[in-house]
Amino acid sequence: MTYRKETECVQGGWQPGDAQPRQVPIYQNTTWRYATSEHMGRLFDLQESGYFYTRLQNPTNDAVADKIRQLEGGAAAMLTSSGQAANFFALFNICEAGSHIVASSAIYGGTYNLIAVTMAKMGIESTFVSPSCTKEELEAAFRPNTRAVFGETIANPALAVLDIELFAQVAHEHGVPLVVDNTFPTPVNCRPLEWGANIVTHSTTKYMDGHGAAVGGAIVDGGTFDWMAHASKFPGLCTPDESYHGVVYAQDFGNEGAFITKATAQLMRDFGSIPSPQNAFILNLGLESLHVRMAQHCKNGEAVAQYLASHPKVSWVRYCGLPSDPYYALAQKYLPNGGCGVVSFGVAGGRAAAEKVMGGLKMASIATHVADARTCCLHPASSTHRQMSDAELEAAGVAPDLIRLSCGIEAAEDIIADIDQALALL
Ligand SMILES: *Cc1c(COP(=O)(O)O)cnc(C)c1O
Q1: Cβ < 6 Å from ligand 1: which residues?
Q2: What cofactor does this protein call for (predicted)?
């Protein structure tokens, strides 16, 4: 039986049998006992599925991953210990030394660093394109060794909306998959797989957990990319894995199972970025109310953006739900029910004025966190980017007066009243 998203948020993943726990149990164990070593050997050879060691798989994690898979409409999914691990695994599962990635330049700073600096040290090159590039500009970024295209549905913190259909079309014309980080809208507001993306990633630390309680990540594979049709590009999926007795993932597990089986069997085994089952349980509690919370985050984001847009001391506002926003048209297409609760804005008076407003906020807390039930805000120029001059900030696409406000699920009137009294200090 297939359910609507709201029902899947609550009911998905864990289906208890007769006299079993109603809530997903926390399997807080590292290992499983088997009666014979032959049985365990079959598990090690991937001939039979089953649990033996939590670094590879754990039933609590798998139940929660399956809920996220259902929400995204994917074929297979896995949890990781963080969003960083999810994006690294999603890309490194396809790329190797000598490969090349095309990525949107409007992405999370940590992911930019991962691709541009750390993966470069592994011999994986990258080219960054503007999220609003034309088809021709996007095509010009491809090289014969390009193996993946990467972008964020709504970029953190730039709030640019990705033209998923365009990026998917160009990726597919070049025989490579599109990987989309869907952290900000969550599957409640957008399902990138339906627009042609092949693999979706998440920092579940944000809205999915939603309570600032557990760092985590997820990867969902749509099962739609035909690896064997492009076998020469993806030897890791299409030729025997000698570290797993010659398994050929794309052949033995098909388009639907190859990607996640390889990421589990190779990358989890070798890098070990598994979440604790306790954290997966906490994530699941967040998922149970995700649809209710996202609606309130969007309602508050919209109200705050409208308030800011009409305030005389506010010099600019970015929110893709505002008709004046450069990404409004794309948001109407991909996010008809709303995007997220994150708004960015600048104040007259630049960096110093922004610091004054931040200092004046009473309810909104200053935090590096975002996408939380509690309203929080960040002024990059005086915190995460404080070593940079105004000129360096502009070059990095971060205005010196930029305040990133993540609207929580409190009453919109109270969030606005807090900003109002802080702006009155200017
Ligand atoms: C926070 C974030 C990440 C990194 O996730 P962690 O859980 O902090 O490792 C990746 N992508 C986006 C869009 C994010 O907002």
Answers
A1: 82-84, 87, 108, 110-111, 152, 156, 181, 183, 203, 205-206, 215, 217
A2: pyridoxal 5'-phosphate
